[in-house]
Write a structure and sequence with these properties.
The chain is built from 3 helices and 6 strands; from the N terminus they run βαββααβββ. The protein is an alpha+beta fold. The chain has a single domain, classed as ACT domain (Alpha-Beta Plaits, 2-Layer Sandwich), CATH 3.30.70.260. The strands form 2 sheets. The protein has a 4-stranded antiparallel sheet with strand order 2-3-5-4. Strands 1-6 form a two-stranded antiparallel ribbon. The mean pLDDT is about 95.
Length: about 110
């Protein structure tokens, strides 16, 4: 069985602030067939977010598959609050990069 990169399967992969203390992530898929396959693969989980962002599972504050939008949504605690010393991304718009490494098992 091969794999497909999340970048091939999703239309949108983004991050943004969810207030000064949280980051939220969206992965929105191209169509229902791709979305269902990714969802059923079991690869994208709160534990995956914890591993990719090197945080404890408790810091993954929200995680869900949002069927109506063909999307995965997650919210994590920011390591540094937005706009404080040490914050390198005030808007949280550049935090999605680790998600680009996700590979989904795929047989054509």
């Amino acid at each position: 069985m091969g794999t497909r990169s999340i970048t091939e399967l999703a239309d949108v992969i983004r991050s943004k602030n969810a207030g000064p203390f949280e980051l939220t992530f969206d992965i929105i898929f191209k169509n229902v067939e791709i979305y269902d396959r990714v969802k059923k693969s079991g690869i994208i989980t709160p534990e995956l977010f914890a591993r990719l962002y090197r945080i404890s599972a408790e810091k993954v504050l929200n995680f869900c598959f949002f069927d109506q939008a063909l999307a995965v949504k997650a919210t994590i605690a920011r390591p540094v609050s937005s706009g404080t010393a040490g914050d390198r991304d005030v808007f949280g718009a550049q935090q999605h990069a680790p998600l680009l490494e996700i590979e989904i098992p795929w047989d054509d």
